[in-house]
Design brief:
It contains six helices and three strands, in the order ααββααβαα. Strands 1-2-3 form a three-stranded mixed sheet. 38% of the residues lie in helices and 14% in strands. It is globular and about 50 Å long. The chain has helices at 15-30, 33-46, 84-94, 96-100, 113-118, 138-141; strands spanning 50-55, 69-75, 105-111. By secondary structure, it is α+β, with helices and mostly antiparallel strands.
Length: 148
């Protein structure tokens, strides 16, 4: 099922934003259980005008197909009159079950529709610099075979 993003009159989206929307929609057709749970809970509780849920686990030293590291972009009227920390706390509360369980890391961008209309950009996540990337025994710890 395709979802639509409503924009103010005369608003032109960059190809990058259009590509993100289309990729996000296509991903939702193939998403995994944790990603689906995150998307469902945020949609039900925050009624976003725009939502992106990105599984960034592949950027970290975890087994292939993991659902441990996520980035969410939530644009919702619910965030009006809330500070950034209040928005983040709200998202964390909505996703408490996931954060108490399989989700190790959650990056949050929480914007009001006005903020999103002024700047519809999503910041890129930095490369993982975690110690596990430099641990020569990490593959063994994760039960993965190494190729020499």
């Amino acid at each position: 099922m395709l979802s639509l993003v409503l924009l103010p009159k005369n608003r032109i989206l960059s190809l990058r934003v259009v590509r993100r929307v289309l990729c996000s929609t296509l991903r939702s057709e193939m998403e995994k259980p944790i990603e689906a749970s995150i998307r469902t809970k945020l949609t039900e509780k925050l009624e976003p005008v725009y939502l992106e849920v990105l599984n960034e686990s592949h950027k970290h030293a975890v087994p292939e197909g993991s659902e441990t590291h996520f980035k969410v972009l939530v644009v919702s009227k619910t965030f009006s009159d809330m500070s950034l920390i209040q928005r983040h706390r709200l998202v964390n509360d909505v996703l408490k079950q996931e954060l108490d369980g399989p989700v190790h890391a959650l990056s949050i961008e929480a914007k009001t529709p006005e903020q999103w209309n002024e700047n519809p950009a999503v910041s890129e996540s930095p490369a993982c610099l975690g110690g596990s990337k430099h641990d020569a025994n990490m593959h063994a710890k994760l039960g993965m075979e190494t190729s020499v």
